[in-house]
Write a structure and sequence with these properties.
Triger factor/SurA peptide-binding fold, 4-stranded antiparallel beta sheet, 9 helices, 54% helix, globular
Length: 244
């Protein structure tokens, strides 16, 4: 695996930048909360050893601790924080990973209801290959999967969900995230002292900056609206603490 030089400790803000995997125990073994039909916070083997925990239930879909940890590690590795591939994840990192996991799942579930934005297999395969190349060798890549208790199928599922969610969000946001030349010019006039090279030299730079800021603003609004009507039950203690 590539050496992580001075990689900062994983933090929630980094992940926020931008499933149905329950192979540890049979579905029938999940304990049910009395009268709710929702799994309790822990899955146990017959001898009582806890093998996984429920972190949250998102529109009826269970998200386990093992799923969340793997998805959080994948997100960190994609952002260059390779230490997160092998080091323990603290609760702050998991809180950030949970927010991302909720956003991605809600985007995909919303599209599922409309039978919209199917995933292109070639695009997902390209994303998987790009992720694989972040490691120095195939051995290092396979070691990451093994350490995470995952396999290529699960990684493909996780990255496929992200590809689809990005496409869904982009289709809604990009048409609205447009900035006129007048807006760029006005911004330059208000901040002219910061750009001594002149308007012509920084016009494209400023246009991209304003479009990016508008895109981020519209994205936050879109996700907030989506989450406002979503049924999300946070189960794990650290997950409940993340509620705002």
């Amino acid at each position: 695996m590539k050496e992580a030089k001075a990689t900062p400790r994983p933090r929630r803000a980094m992940i926020l930048g931008w499933a149905g995997w329950l192979t540890l125990v049979p579905v029938a073994a999940m304990a049910q909360a009395p009268g709710t039909g929702v799994p309790e916070a822990a899955f146990e083997e017959p001898e009582g050893r806890i093998v996984d925990q429920v972190v949250a239930v998102i529109e009826g879909q269970v998200l386990t601790r093992s799923e969340l940890e793997f998805e959080t590690r994948v997100a960190f590795v994609q952002q260059g924080a390779l230490q997160a591939a092998v080091e323990p994840l603290d609760e702050e990192a998991l809180k950030g990973g949970l927010e991302l996991a909720i956003n991605l799942r809600l985007q995909v579930l919303s599209a599922d209801r409309l039978e919209a934005f199917p995933t292109e297999q070639a695009e997902v395969e390209a994303r998987v290959e790009k992720f694989r190349r972040l490691f120095d060798s195939e051995e290092a890549f396979q070691d990451f999967l093994a350490r995470s208790g995952a396999d290529l199928k699960l990684l493909t599922e996780v990255l496929g969900r992200r590809v689809r969610a990005e496409r869904i969000l982009d289709s809604r946001i990009r048409p609205r995230a447009q900035v006129s030349e007048a807006e760029v010019s006005r911004y330059f006039q208000q901040h002219a002292s910061e750009y001594p090279e002149g308007y012509a030299a920084v016009k494209v730079q400023l246009q991209n900056k304003l479009k990016r800021e508008l895109y981020d603003k519209l994205t936050a609004e879109d996700l907030a609206q989506l989450r406002a009507s979503a049924q999300v039950r946070r189960v794990a203690p650290f997950a409940r603490e993340a509620r705002r």
